[in-house]
Specification:
Blueprint (H helix, E strand, L loop, with lengths): L2 E9 L8 E9 L13 E4 L12 E11 L6 E10 L22 E12 L4 E2 L26 H13 L4 E6 L5 E9 L1 H22 L1 E4 L15 E6 L1 H5 L3 H9 L4 H10 L22 E3 L6 E3 L1 H5 L6 E3 L8 H13 L1
Parallel strand pairs: 1-5, 12-13
Antiparallel strand pairs: 1-2, 3-4, 4-5, 6-7, 6-9, 6-10, 6-11, 8-9, 11-14, 13-14
Length: 339
């Protein structure tokens, strides 16, 4: 009887940034037929993940999405899970449970930037042990051994994401040395978040083989003339996709402008984001809000493609940091657009 390896994946309760956790369950053909409904609830020690006290440590894992695991031999799967408290209610760390998108009217495309960090030097890939590489400019969408660093790992990550059934729409080298990006699109906020987290999990796991840690800090090189890392959130709903006039776009963008909305957004758009949102390096200041057509220095960019399509398309919120939880980002955007 065949055995199936199910890697249950969840988010811990660490602050200010959550990390991925996982463990493996083995099921045989009599219990698992390759469907999400076949994945049983499971539990874990929440006292070891900042999600429960030691004297009442059980937390529950609720399977919510299933993907093939491309790295393990045989019958292997990723099981993305929500964390529930022992009474079956969503745990406070469970951002997915806050999404209000039952009909999947909202579509999201996340642009995930990150740095590869050499675990021996604790510097980005391509940085010399002493000093600095050539200034940024030559690395964006680059090719060549003096410009693109870690490509072998990046290509393996892309292949495994596709084999896992993730809807990756592209990858590219980014502005700084050792900085890369992948893009994922999904119809439905929960699905988009699931796929980003699975792609992050794959990236971390592949990094184990290559000796690279994944650095999601939005400004890992500090107050220097090197770009930070974001997770730009491209989003649309039926109103944006069918608008047909500028006024609809203006009305939705204006919903993000009130101070309480800015405060809410920044609270879930990633830790240390004030170091990135300075008004420099293609960002707007964290203290300001703006939007504009093709404006990469704005809080929200209206893509020129939407304008040329007769004001039908999407918006790009450029503020989310690379370490943000896509579930929480999507949930905040949906609340704002629906307000």
């Amino acid at each position: 009887m065949a055995k199936h390896k199910l890697e249950y994946i969840w988010l811990d309760g660490y602050e200010p940034t959550q990390s991925l956790r996982s463990k493996t369950k083995i099921l045989d053909d009599s219990k698992f037929k390759g469907k999400l409904k076949d994945c049983p609830m499971w539990s874990f020690d929440g006292s070891s993940t900042q999600q429960a006290p030691g004297n009442s440590s059980d937390c529950l894992l609720k399977p919510v999405a299933l993907y093939p695991d491309p790295a393990r031999r045989g019958n292997a799967w990723f099981v993305m899970c929500e964390v529930l408290s022992s009474d079956g209610t969503p745990h406070p760390s469970n951002g997915r449970a806050t999404i209000d998108d039952d009909d999947n009217d909202f579509w999201f495309g996340f642009e995930q930037e990150y740095f590869l960090y050499d675990i021996d030097t604790n510097k980005p890939a391509g940085f010399p042990v002493d000093g600095w590489p050539d200034p940024q400019g030559q690395y964006y969408c680059s090719v060549g051994a003096r410009n693109a660093f870690g490509r072998e790992m990046i290509e393996e990550h892309l292949e495994q994401c596709l084999e896992a059934g993730l809807n990756v729409e592209g990858i590219n080298a980014e502005v700084a040395a050792g900085q890369w990006e992948f893009q994922i699109f999904a119809k439905g906020a929960a699905s988009a978040g699931d796929q980003i987290w699975i792609a992050r999990y794959l990236l971390e796991r592949i990094g184990e083989k290559y000796g690279y840690a994944i650095n999601y800090h939005p400004k890992p090189l500090g107050d220097t003339d090197w770009n930070g890392s974001g997770m730009h959130a491209n989003f649309s709903n039926s109103a944006l996709r069918t608008a047909g006039k500028k006024e609809v776009y203006d009305e939705i963008c204006q919903k993000f402008k009130p101070k309480d909305r800015i405060k809410e957004a920044i609270s879930v758009y990633g830790a240390y984001n004030d170091q990135r949102l300075t008004g420099k390096h293609e960002t707007q200041s964290i203290r300001k809000f703006s939007y504009g057509v093709s404006d990469r220095g704005a809080s929200i960019r209206i893509p020129i493609a939407a304008v040329e399509s007769g004001w039908k398309g999407w918006l790009e919120d450029r503020r989310p940091a690379s370490n943000a939880d896509p579930y929480k980002v999507a949930a905040s955007i949906i609340r704002t657009v629906k307000s």
